[in-house]
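User: My advisor, Dr. K., asked me to get a structural model of this assembly before our group meeting. I'm new to this, so sorry if the format is off. These are the inputs:
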Amino acid sequence: RLAASTFDEVIAADQKIEPRDAMPEAYRKTLIRQIAQHAHSEIIGMQPEGNWISRAPSLKRKAILLAKVQDEAGHGLYLYAAAETLGVSRADLVDALLDGRQKYSSIFNYPTLTWADVGAIGWLVDGAAIVNQVPLCRCSYGPYARAMIRVCKEESFHQRQGYEILHTLAHGTEAQHAMAQDALDRWWYPSLAMFGPPDADSTHSERSMAWKIKRFSNDELRQRFVDMCVGQAEILGLRIPDDGLRWNEQRGAYDFTAPDYAELMRVIKGDGPCNRQRIEHRRRAHAEGAWVREAAEAYARKHATATVAA
Amino acid sequence: RLAASTFDEVIAADQKIEPRDAMPEAYRKTLIRQIAQHAHSEIIGMQPEGNWISRAPSLKRKAILLAKVQDEAGHGLYLYAAAETLGVSRADLVDALLDGRQKYSSIFNYPTLTWADVGAIGWLVDGAAIVNQVPLCRCSYGPYARAMIRVCKEESFHQRQGYEILHTLAHGTEAQHAMAQDALDRWWYPSLAMFGPPDADSTHSERSMAWKIKRFSNDELRQRFVDMCVGQAEILGLRIPDDGLRWNEQRGAYDFTAPDYAELMRVIKGDGPCNRQRIEHRRRAHAEGAWVREAAEAYARKHATATVAA
Amino acid sequence: MSSEALELGDDALIAAQRLAEWCASAPELEEDLALANIALDQLGAARLFLSYAGEADGRTEDDLAYLRDDREFRNCLLAELPNGDFAVTMAKLLFLAAAQKLRYDALAAGPDARLAAIAAKTRKETAYHLDHAARWVVRLGDGTAESHRRMQDAVDALWPYTHELGERAAWLALVEPVLAEATLDRPADGWAPAGGRDGVHTEHLSYLLAEMQVVHRAHPGARW
Amino acid sequence: MSSEALELGDDALIAAQRLAEWCASAPELEEDLALANIALDQLGAARLFLSYAGEADGRTEDDLAYLRDDREFRNCLLAELPNGDFAVTMAKLLFLAAAQKLRYDALAAGPDARLAAIAAKTRKETAYHLDHAARWVVRLGDGTAESHRRMQDAVDALWPYTHELGERAAWLALVEPVLAEATLDRPADGWAPAGGRDGVHTEHLSYLLAEMQVVHRAHPGARW
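Assistant: The format is fine. Below is the predicted structure of the whole assembly, which you can bring to the meeting.
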């Protein structure tokens, strides 16, 4: 593209805004908020799944789960780096997470109660994340779009692994099947809620669409997710816990019962089952790690000085 | 007895020395050392058995074990109270335990590795304690003798419970029987060592005998213990791990292999498997409780003042 | 199965398990005795309630304690929360014992003769637990600056979980005077986590059960 | 069964389990990644060694990991000790990785072709673990006053457990220079606890296993 293109021209031409390009302050702020929230979600998301690493029922599953949680830490790193291209520091973003100024995905405020929840999170939560994130690979901000390409590739790998866990359980013993169904029962509606409030109530959406940060509405993405899950649940032999779920010939899509948006709002506001636990865990890890980070800095300073002096 | 009896007359008449009686400083010091060590042993002894309360395999056993460990705390309390009659404070004795100036029974420096260890401790360790302690019920120092009567009564109850645990295991499944045998294999020699070094090497003993604090020698008590255990092990269907164990017609007692006294000395010196862990645990509990004890004192002071002022 | 017996049995069992974790770690020896004593009472209550709860389908107290997973437990969330420091433990005990007392009192006067007989025994014990916890909450709340801070933090952190305990007005009538005497602020009501009665617990319970059940489960069918 | 494979497999498995406990709790995000990475390597090594160890009597890696109790585990005591703070974890890793490296090097040049092939893979990974731990030990030892104190405390507390690791001279040659660079005192040799290779462990291991094995054992014969 031409070096002299204005922001609006770049957006209109479906090209990428890069860190040094001029951009409206609101665009920058919106992106920082969104990328940071995404990064925070990866970091907080390590907890509910990390909760089952020590108890994974086979060494192979333990390795897969550990690698997955490690990938989440990695995603957090890329995404913080992407946010930093917009002129904020990771330390400030972490502070904003810890003191509640910035959010993370509400889905991680539900507890993981059984091993099957690891499967359900992989299948449903990562599945919903992919539906949300695939369009972001074409987002107008270059560093974010590129980070999302890598993230989405790994997420789809995670989703297959989650599906495989559930498949094994659903086709295993009676107790395993029941565990899988129970997990689906608990994670279905929170997963639907991951797409956010219904379009009618969604703030920020219109402008993000115009800026090509967002490309589909919450309800469009939610529908896409439901349509994708129905067939997969059939193969699993599990029942999606929605009596209102049925194929709508006219719409060419499934009708389904909406999640409880009032509950979503309560969880976003901070009153989900695990909000306090998750943020408290992160604060404690951060505080308990302070002496280590300080030592590393002190060591680096000492030896930088030594090198200069030498 | 006559109020004017001298210390030596009271001892000679097999009567009791009471707190206000005159007594040789060395007698007082010996008693303080012995009673404190005994009290400390009760307190430290809560740890190896307490280790299995959370995992006791039936609710009934859990209740029995919890009650037993509670009894140990109670014994600790009487014994500290008995020591206090000799003009020391419990706080000072606890300090002496925590900084290593006073000892506790070395037996508690072995780990409890399986549920069967709870049985073995009851049968062997409490059994050895009883053999050691029954003569102390006739000890020349009144408060100690009276405390020991109560302690021994409860200990023999504990011993029966331990024996019952082992009996159930030894007559249970193959795995349970193996667990019981394994516990006996590990606890046998440390239990024999509880009677202390062989008479030839025993310090303090002669004077304690003269003062009627101690009434039998280490080796006499050890022999009594072995003779008691052999028949009980047969009923249990367990094998005492000693190839040298056999009836000696002439002596009218069992010959047996002595414990490794060098190991006993190492453990006494501080190098048993759990010395550091046990004392570290106690120090931590003491340190972490400091703010609670301070608060209780502050509250008592405030409200004492309030009462006086009112 | 009597769901009331199961709830009360599970509350008492999980409380006993948590209290017993203090064994050999209490701030003073007298408190080691007291906590073990209260744990024993709770365990005794658990055995009575669970035995009764299991009668309907021929399960023993041990079947119910050792062979259910966390999704089948019906205890309130408060009981399963980690012990935290001594202030947290005392706040938990105060809140739980107050609720237990109210439920036991009601049962003791209720129509189920078996439950009434159990409750007649346990309500006496729970009155002692409530008193013991209340004394500590007052001493710590009105003790030093540090103990006041810790006690207030404990009350604040646990307060949300008390909404699951039922009988709010009567419960508040037991608890609020204690907080007042302890010079502690009574937290505002707000977040009200629940789910324990439906078997939707916190992430803590499955760890507690893994430890509690490990030996029993490793030897299926064995006698102990 | 190859006792060498079992010892090395158990060392790696227990180390992996402990390292994975850091998940989402590391002092910085990069270290969350690094610790997970090292845990994954250890877990991978454990799977190779345990698979081999189980071949003789037809047991799988999961049979060995999930269906033995602590008296049957052959790991060194060092591996099972609690993580403590980050300094303790890094001291544990330094000491263990140094020992693993020496054993892997020897195996890689040894007569058992299968073990040699496994060791050829794991020795590369362990060199990275050793390096990672050494860098942290140096940074913490030579960092702030607090980090120096914590690092020295960690080294002092763990040192006795290193006597069980075998190959003392070669091991010291790997570890002593790191301590020196870290400005840490090399503790005196003295107490030398052991027993892990004979299945006589610390009281910590059975808790670790209770947690690790709980789901697998609750569903006998199930596939995952």
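One thing worth pointing out at the meeting: The two ends of chain A are 48 Å apart (CA to CA).

User: Perfect, thanks a lot.
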